[in-house]
Amino acid sequence: MELHGGAVDTTSMTTSRPAPFGRALCAMITPFTASGALDLDGAQRLADRLVAGGCDGLVLSGTTGESPTTSDTEKAELVRAVREAVGDRAHIVAGVGTADTRHTVELALAAEKAGADGLLAVTPYYSRPPQDAVEAHFRELADACGLPLVLYDIPGRTGTRIEPETMVRLAEHPRITAVKDCAYDLLGTQKVLAETELAYYTGCDEYALALYAIGGSGYISTVANVTPRHFRAIIDAFDAGETDEAARLQRLTIPLTELMMGLGLPGTVTAKAILNSLSLPAGPVRAPLRPAGREAVDGLLAAFEDLVSAR
Predict the structure, then answer these.
(1) Cβ–Cβ contacts within 10 Å for residue 149, how many?
(2) What residues correspond to the site Part of a proton relay during catalysis (predicted)?
């Protein structure tokens, strides 16, 4: 079944769990020029490569996309450029989360105008609001904009969880449709899956198969910036009933995922290190982030090459 413009509706290909933004999503890095300016041409080339590699959704200006250090104008420009590059071949989800509800709404309206298909909003950080305030924040955002909303639950960065009970209540809102799950609470996730129709996307690459197998909708992967075809192959194998093959492919990602996400460096830094080494669009990271050192880059490239050759 096709959506508008020819995009494929993957909702019915596996379980009954909805997949409003596709199943294979990449948390795309934001390419910069050597001088640190936004590289829109590079973003278009990278987006095209990711879609050709099997991504049916791209998440822009998230954690991996260096949202804290890109301006509001740059975020909107990025959405417009990537939309122009991929057309209707992939869904575009724009990161709009901030610590300020008013600012978050402003970013959401700008993303909608720029051509995004959905919004990704992280729990307000630093102020650590209680659950009733977290719920009110997301409801105000969902009420203000016409786009569907992905709740981004990553308490390790924000300091505040979206508790399962809060998720269940928020699922009643017609425009709150999905979750990017980085809470590392599989029991809590299963509770929400059992009680709602929310589309659950893992934001933890090591859980790509595990969450999918229990009724998740797919993944939003940082590692897919460098290996989009491999992560797509995991869920394709599972969809085909080849569960042993899916498990094998997931296990093959362990060394690279561990280095990219567990090296002590942010995934933005490690993804850009590999992409730059492969002469693909990436560029520098913006301060306060710093580039990976030579030893780290060598280890990342070795793990990447091992994964590519193991397929």
Answers:
(1) 24
(2) 63, 126
- Out of 152, 200, 207, 212, pick the active-site residue: 152
Known catalytic membership, residue 184: no
Distance (Å, whole) CA 70 – CA 283: 14
Domain segments of the chain as ranges: 24-242
Residue 234 assigned ligand-binding role: no
CATH number of 24-242: 3.20.20.70
Q: Is 254 annotated as a binding residue?
A: no
Token code pair at residue 103: 């600012």
- Rg of the chain, C-alpha, whole Å: 18
Q: Which of 75, 125, 126, 180 is catalytic?
A: 180
The model's pLDDT over 270-304, given as tens digits with 9 standing for 90+, comes to 999 999 999 999 999 999 999 999 999 999 999 99
Chain centroid offset of residue 179 CA: 10
Catalytic residue check, 207:
no
